[in-house]
Amino acid sequence: MTATQASGAVKRQSKSSANGVGPSEKQQLGQWGRAWEVDWFSLVSVIVLLLCAPLLVFYFVMSCDQYQCALSGPLLDLYSGKSSIGDIWSRAPNFSWTAAKIYAAWVCFQVFLYMCVPDVCHKFLPGYVGGVQDGALTPAGLINKYEVNGLQAWIITHVVWFANANYLHWFSPTIIFDNWISLLWCVNILGYTVATFAMLKAYLFPTNAKDCKFTGNLFYDYMMGIEFNPRIGKWFDFKLFFNGRPGIVAWTLINLSFAAKQQELYGQVTNSMILVNVLQAIYVVDFFWNEAWYLKTIDICHDHFGWYLGWGDCVWLPYLYTLQGLYLVYNPVKLSAANVVGVLLLGLVGYYIFRMTNHQKDLFRRTDGNCKIWGKKPECIECSYLSADGKKHHSKLMISGFWGLARHFNYTGDLMGSLSYCLACGFGHLLPYFYIIYMSILLVHRCVRDEHRCSSKYGKDWRRYTDAVPSRLLPGLF
User: How far apart are CA 91 and CA 227, in angstroms?
Assistant: First the structure.
């Protein structure tokens, strides 16, 4: 489902490409991004996604609300004649002005934190890079500046949340769960509004006309975006804001609300719910800690801003990345001590591999290979390639450390973490395992897309690299 490779959002930081050193950002940009022309297969795929993705989110949420998260429930009722699509739709809560006010307040608060509160965390947190940072070079030759303050926004938001829960009592900690289905209308309204505005803006008043891509196909341009970096004013960057805020900041709050609802309903928070909250919080905090690094990943460097990112980060990410917590409200699972330890270790080891793999690549790039990986100087494949102007350039592809085990071992760690979230929910239903299924498809697709680009770019040198590191994700298997 390409709608939220931001996803999603964000996986946000597992999206960097091959572990090379040398090519400039401008030379890489021509290799990525959306198409200039659209074939029939791409057009049909886009239309199917535009039609089916919102229905899939609705189906999952209503399966939990009406069938205890049994995905087969609505289908069996439809097949047996017990319910019609109209019946299922009619049982869904309608648009709520209460939910609309909650969501409007939430988005405005995040805009305020993004625009009006300059980052100070980088001044007192050792190792954290925040404040004003340069982005990558755009196809038009621009280097945009960003106010990197996501970690600060996350901290302030959660301080307010815990202060309210323990002292202020402005709202119930279960407020998100209690309005969850009504909020689905609100996030869809914002997602479609943002995507539509971005498309109209590209035609009427683009931030930079040279950074726009038009195919002439309305559906494709709407989904994949036209403008590279749509902005309002100097600092409000659509891509950075919607990739990280409001969706990812909300991720941990959504899980906390689910935990509060579990406490309200059953008088306790299960160890499985605690595991999901802890493991996903580690991922979210890691994202914001490395937000400056994220400016150099595919989402920011190569993707244009359209429905794919706008709707995806407003709807797909907060609703489908949090399915484990939602499932555990309807189906509380108490894990044995051995299972808790096993799931926790899988998640922590996956996170370690994910983070250290990216760290090794970044260290190799920063030092041009003059560093130590696993106690010794890293080995690499010397590559050359031609840029669009016919000039010859040189690069290096590391084949040491985790990058010697597989060509995308950061994805492997990412998938291990994703699996741990799902395993925390036991084996009662398929729904909480959607996440690992989706992430597997997404990251395997990224492997193929990345390697197609690298093969075109490096030619025979890329074949030398794949001979040296034959596995993509799992050493000896794939």
Answer: 39
Rounded (5°) CA angle 183-187-193 = 145
Of the candidates 310, 277, 308, 94, which has an alpha carbon nearest to the alpha carbon of residue 183? 94
pLDDT digits (tens, 9 = 90+) for 44-82: 888 999 999 999 999 999 899 989 999 998 888 888 888
The separation between the first and the last C-alpha atoms of the chain, rounded to the nearest angstrom, is: 22
Q: Are 1 and 437 in contact (CB under 8 A)?
A: no
CB 331 within 8 A of CB 38: no
Q: What's the longest Cα–Cα distance across the chain?
A: 68
Task: Say what the pLDDT of residue 250 is.
Answer: 96
Residues with Cβ within 8 Å of residue 419, at least 6 apart in sequence: 346, 350, 436
Nearest to 241 by CA among 54, 88, 112, 69: 112
Task: Give yes or no for a cis peptide into 8 (omega within 30° of 0).
Answer: yes
Please, which residues bridge with residue 381 across strands? 397
Q: Residues 227-244: pLDDT tens digits?
A: 988 999 888 999 999 988
For CA atoms 406, 411, 417, 421, give the dihedral sign: negative
Cβ pair 311, 48 in contact under 8 A: no
Q: How many CB atoms lie within 10 A of CB 84?
A: 11
Domain spans of the chain?
Answer: 2-468
Q: How confident is the model at residue 215 (pLDDT cuts 50, 70, 90)?
A: confident
Closest listed residue to residue 173, CA positions, set 100, 269, 244: 269
